[in-house]
Amino acid sequence: MVLTVLPDSYTPHAIYLTNCTDCKLESITVYDSNCFSFFESDCERTHYYRCAVTRKINDPKFPDDRLRAGFADGIHSKHAKVGPIIEECVLEHSGDDCIAINGSFYPVYRVNEADRTLYILTAEDMASKIKPKKEDTLVVISNRGTRRGQSPITNISTAYPTASERSACFSKLTNIREQQNYTNGAKIVLSEWIDGIGIGDMVYSNDRIGSGFKVINNKVGHNRSRAILIKASDGKISGNTIEHSAMSAIAIAPEFYWLEAGCSQNLEIADNRISDCMYDASMTSTSQAASITVVAEAPNGKLADCGAFSDIHIHGNIIEDCPFPAVFLNSIDG
Q: CA-CA distance, 265 to 296, in Å (whole number)?
């Protein structure tokens, strides 16, 4: 397959899937992209099998080899109802993370317990455009980073936050990127009330974070950021070879400042071989502090109390030629 992006085109990403179910991409190689090499949104069970994101070298059209294969992530999965299977792929030399699987957080700006309603800030101008949907299970994360609980959604409608409500909400949050875009709102009615919800908490749809994923038997690395960055649940990361990733080889981490959800449950991280990672991470600016990291930096900017994650199983991994600490874990219940 040969894909060409015209010089005057600003359409991002080399391969972009939306609302696909059981799509299989096999033996596709991407040498360059203007953002993500593979991007999927709102998909189910995409299977990436023996695909590659890598530099093209010894190209007779150019006197020098490429430095990077693509501007940003290799494979990025967003809002998947069922997460992707990424199997026997080669993902290297990407401009950012090699693999990323996540959903979206929304900040809470008003609460009405009597009506079982909470109000969230959104960048979208209508409630119908946001990712939590009616009958989804909404998860509430406290401002301290712990899981308050979850409940089915019975209704969503558009709401209109005031400037003072936005200001009060963002005053409780740390380093939220592009907060100037979050001028709109939505009203969410819960089937069952969750005690303790407050302004500055975060919510996400548990049905749209890529849960059920598998990242197995891949060759990953040679990139400037994380090799594998996961925010989904009910998944497996196993049998991968991860080399020369400048930051964490495997990071399980919600990123509230990017509003990328969620808080993982029931993961297995097993039998991966990791070498020469974390060589360029700045420990003054990241909580993702090891080659294998499971960490929640709370919405308030501090390390989260226990309870962001649960049932994380880590075994059989080999880590070599990486700085200490080799493994950094926090906020895990089980």
A: 13
Tell me how far apart the alpha carbons of residues 294 and 333 are, in angstroms, rounded to a whole number: 12
What pLDDT digit, counting tens, does each position of 26-61 carry? 999 999 898 999 999 999 999 999 999 999 888 898
DSSP label at residue 72? S
Distance CA 136, CA 275 (A): 40
Residues, the chain: 334
Strands (E), 27-146: 29-30, 38-41, 47-49, 52-53, 75-78, 85-87, 90-92, 99-104, 106-112, 117-122, 137-141
* Structural element, H or E, at residue 17: strand 15-18
- For residues 203 and 132, the answer to whether their CB atoms sit within 8 Å is yes
pTM across the whole model? 0.95
Tokens describing residue 79: 């809002």
